[in-house]
Design a protein that fits this description.
- The structure holds 2 protein chains of 2 kinds.
- Chain A is mainly alpha-helical.
- Chain A has 3 helices and no strands.
- Chain A is elongated and about 50 Å long.
- Chain B is mostly helical.
- Chain B folds into 5 domains: 148 residues; 401 residues, no CATH class; 53 residues, no CATH class; 102 residues, no CATH class; 28 residues.
- In chain B, the strands form 2 sheets. In chain B, strands 1-2 form a two-stranded antiparallel sheet. A two-stranded antiparallel sheet of chain B has the order 3-4.
- The chains are: A mainly alpha, B mainly alpha.
- At the A-B interface, helix 1 of A face helix 26 of B.
Chain lengths: 103, 756
């Protein structure tokens, strides 16, 4: 129909890796949250693309994407809430400063 | 009227009208720091809005000329498919028709002038963010004006809401707010949430209209298609159901255009910069509600006439209510804000009684003169360094240009000038409509009283600001530079030219059409409602209304002159009881009249009722307090309910459980003392004996061998493994990536892609 699916999958992979690199490299929790959103979007692209290239139907994949976007929005809200409360309690959002899980 | 579809020469440019500002908005945001550094990237915004304005001038100018000269029927849609959902095709593009042409021309002109004006006005407080938001707003409004379907219209509508929010809260980090004014951040929140209430109604209306078309088998959001469907299949639909849909759509307009129950956000929105108040909260965005109803007017026409009646009544209430509040405002922007709400009420009345042509006619005229008034007010604030008219006065010598242009704007608002024609048309249509619908008589009364109030309060403002002596000489007011005065003069000239054109087209009172080509008021009906026959209004009624409109406006100005004009260099002071005091050194006959009338007014004001009314108006009819109180009452009742539940139900439940527990304890104590204790003692003896045996085993085998050994093992292992748990989030993320890669590799092995 348009182009080879692998191009889009490649773009999604690239986007995922960009998001992941951002997640690994960034110190600020807010940046990490943004990076997670990028990764989620790469997953959304996969949904839409595989729906487009399968016989299941175009709309099914798009609905999955919309649900996933709604989930991402909820997740971002919760994440920002946590970051805000962390900031209020500790005065910083640098993720490296929080090692409460350290064994 | 010739029914032929004409090809427009410049129609291909129409798509770029909204695209240029939206692109420029992003460029300004990121490059504004580097280009045109001194003015925060004003140059980019200037070029973009200027280009957009020139394109609009070409496109709309051509449409208007074709309409005037050829009497052509223009309705051209240039659109591409945006997306499909099921059978519905949503398009994105432009719809070129007379309505879009006239409104977008006004929007583009004012947006351009405001950006020019901002270069000087925002020279200290500006930022690339400001210009980016202004440009984004212009793009959103033009998208809305040119949109061919409800979905694109709604996108523009919401985008404008966001820009309004961002720009009202532009000074969000302001620390000191003048007393009695809201903080910009909370004003922005209030504006956004209040209009959102209307937006939800609008969206519900759009969806219901869509469902109605779906029922008929032709699902569409397109304006033209919906209209044609309604016209073709009128008998199959239920007009009562359309009243509901029409009122939902009107709900959106009530929010955006600040009509009666939801008008509370607009006065607070004045917390933004004056340029923003001018562009968004008087000249363009608040007109979007009127535009929306004009766009979907076929729904209102199709609905039962109750819908129109409600629209007219809401307009009437809004007009007179905010007109009276404007009388007691002491903030220069406050007067203009309430005046805007009042004039929007006029437009709503126009929609409710005369059809959309008069309303859109007033939208255009009001857009021009209210933008002029707001920009003049901005110039005054910039020059005098205050917004409070109690601290102004005597600015005519210091700001001669501003005083003249503001006089032109005030005259126009008062109903002498280009504002006369549209305001008079609305009053006339209301009166004509009232002959069939007695309830509209109230609306007409409200419109006439508001006309008087308008003339009074705007000249109260002008007389208190410009003539006389300065009340705060230490402020050193100065005239604004040419970046600000040139847009003012442009608007003033546009206002005068429009007035001249209307006058030449149809001289009021005498009712002579000097040059029929220029009778824009009449042409508006032809262009906007080509299918309806031109309204046939009695000539005598027309002359009577026009004459009385003029007299009312002059009376208002005259009363303002008598009460507020400082004759013979009177010193004006603002006293603690909330009135202006005038002290005159020399006297003549007019000063005598002024003094008597002032003392009469003061004695009325000092009575119990007078003070009550004054307080009522200053508080804005307590509508804000009512909303706040309502929330408090609901919350208080909720708390009461919870308290009652806690006291009566939960407490008793807890006590009951306690009692059962107590009784059970008594029983179990007896059981414990007699039965269990005996058993325990017996067991104890046996245990002691066994323990002796076990102790020996324990010490030798278990302690040294198993327990210590395993503990050591666990500690050692833990010591190694704990290093994995660094507590650093990134490391965990890395582990999960490694895990994912491992799973993928295993998967590839299982799938047989990689050989085992």
């Amino acid at each position: 129909m348009i182009a080879d699916a692998s191009i889009f999958v490649g773009i999604a992979l690239l986007l995922f890796l960009i998001g992941f690199a951002g997640f690994i490299k960034s110190k600020s929790a807010i940046r990490m949250l943004i990076a997670v959103e990028i990764m989620l979007n790469s997953a959304n692209i996969n949904f839409a693309i595989f729906a487009l290239y399968n016989d299941i139907g175009f709309v099914t994949g798009q609905i999955a994407v919309i649900i996933s976007i709604a989930l991402a929005a909820a997740e971002a809200a919760v994440g920002l809430g946590i970051i805000l409360s962390v900031y209020r309690n500790h005065g910083t959002v640098e993720a490296t400063d929080f090692q409460a899980l350290k064994g | 009227m010739v029914e032929e579809v004409v090809h427009l020469i410049f129609s291909d440019f129409a798509v770029f009208i909204p695209i240029i500002p939206i692109v420029a908005s992003f460029i300004v945001l990121f490059a504004g720091k580097y280009v045109d550094k001194k003015a925060y990237g004003n140059l980019i915004a200037l070029i973009a809005t200027g280009a957009s304005f020139i394109l609009t001038l070409l496109v709309s100018g051509e449409i208007i000329l074709r309409l005037l000269l050829d009497h052509a029927h223009i309705e051209q849609k240039i659109a591409a498919t945006w997306f499909h959902v099921g059978d519905v095709k949503i398009e994105i593009g432009v719809l070129l028709d007379p309505l879009a042409a006239v409104v977008s021309l006004m929007v583009a002109l004012i947006a351009f002038l405001v950006v020019v004006y901002s270069r000087s006005y925002m020279s200290h407080e500006g930022s690339p963010r400001y210009y980016a938001e202004i440009n984004l707003f212009a793009a959103a409004m033009l998208t809305l004006c040119l949109s061919p379907n409800f979905i694109q219209l709604f996108v523009g509508w919401e985008l404008m809401g966001v820009c309004s929010y961002l720009l009202i809260g532009y000074f969000y980090d302001k620390e000191v707010v003048p007393e009695g004014q809201p903080h910009p951040a909370s004003a922005a929140k209030k504006a956004f949430l209040t209009t959102k209430v209307g937006d939800i109604f609008l969206f519900a209306g759009i969806i219901l209209l869509y469902l109605e078309t779906l029922n008929f088998g032709q699902p569409t959001f397109d304006f033209i298609e919906v209209r044609d469907l309604l016209e073709a299949q009128a008998i199959h639909f239920d007009p009562m159901w359309f009243v509901f849909i029409a009122l939902l759509i009107f709900g959106g307009a009530v929010g955006k255009s600040a009509q009666f129950p939801l008008h509370v956000w607009l006065p607070d929105a004045m917390a933004g910069p004056t340029t923003v108040s001018c562009l968004i909260h008087s000249a363009t965005m608040v007109k979007a509600g009127i535009f929306l109803i004009a766009r979907s007017y076929f729904v209102f026409e199709f609905a039962d006439s109750d819908a129109m009646l409600i629209v007219a009544l809401i307009g009437g209430i809004t007009a007179i209510m905010s007109g009276t509040i404007a009388l007691v405002q002491t903030d220069i922007k406050g007067v203009l804000a309430f005046s805007t709400i009042s004039q929007l009420g006029y437009m709503t009345i126009g929609l409710g009684v005369g059809g959309m042509a008069v309303a859109i006619f007033h939208v255009i005229n009001h857009g021009v003169f209210k933008a002029l008034l707001f920009l003049s007010a901005g110039s005054v604030i910039h020059g005098a360094g205050t917004q409070d008219i109690r601290e102004m006065g005597g600015l005519r010598e210091k700001m001669p240009q501003t005083s003249i242009v503001m006089l032109i704007g005030s005259l126009s608002l008062a109903g002498i000038g280009n504002g006369f024609f549209s305001k008079d048309a609305i009053i006339l249509h209301t009166l004509d409509h009232a002959l069939h619908e007695p309830l509209v008589m109230l609306v007409w009364l409200s419109a006439v009283i508001t006309a008087f109030l308008t003339a009074f309060y705007i000249f109260r403002l002008w007389f208190l600001v410009f003539p006389g002596q300065s009340r705060k000489p230490e402020h050193h007011a100065h005239e604004s530079d040419s970046w600000m005065t040139r847009p003012l003069w442009t608007l003033a000239i546009v206002s005068l030219v429009l007035a001249g054109i209307y006058f030449l087209g149809n001289i009021p009172v005498l009712n002579i059409e000097l040059i029929p080509l220029l009778n824009i008021e009449h042409h508006m009906f032809e262009w906007l409602e080509p299918l309806k026959p031109a309204p046939d209004i009695d000539k005598g009624l027309t002359v009577l209304t026009q004459l009385s409109s003029l007299i009312i406006a002059l009376c208002g100005i005259g009363l303002a002159y008598i009460v507020y004009y400082p004759r013979k260099n009177a010193t004006v002071t603002f006293s603690a009881d909330g009135t202006f005091k005038f002290e005159v050194s020399e006297k003549d006959s007019i000063v005598g009249i002024q003094e008597t009338s002032r003392s009469v007014i003061r004695s009325i004001k000092l009575t119990f009722i007078g003070r009550g009314i004054q307080r009522l108006l200053e508080k804005g009819y307590y509508i804000d307090d009512l909303y706040l109180g309502l929330v408090h009452v609901i919350y208080a009742y909720y708390c009461e309910l919870m308290n009652w539940l806690e006291k009566n139900i939960f407490d008793n439940a807890v006590r009951f459980t306690g009692r059962i527990g107590y009784e059970l304890c008594g029983f179990s104590r007896w059981w414990d003392d007699t039965v269990v204790d005996g058993l325990v003692r017996l067991t104890g003896r046996a245990s002691v004996a066994l323990c002796g045996l076990a102790k020996a085993t324990d010490e030798r085998v278990i302690d040294h061998g198993i327990i210590r050994g395993s503990a050591k093992g666990v500690m050692k292992t833990g010591g190694y493994i704990r290093r994995v748990q660094t507590g650093v989030v990134e490391n965990y993320a890395l582990y999960s990536l490694m895990g994912a890669i491992t799973i993928i590799i295993i998967g590839l092995f299982i799938a047989g892609v990689l050989p085992l």
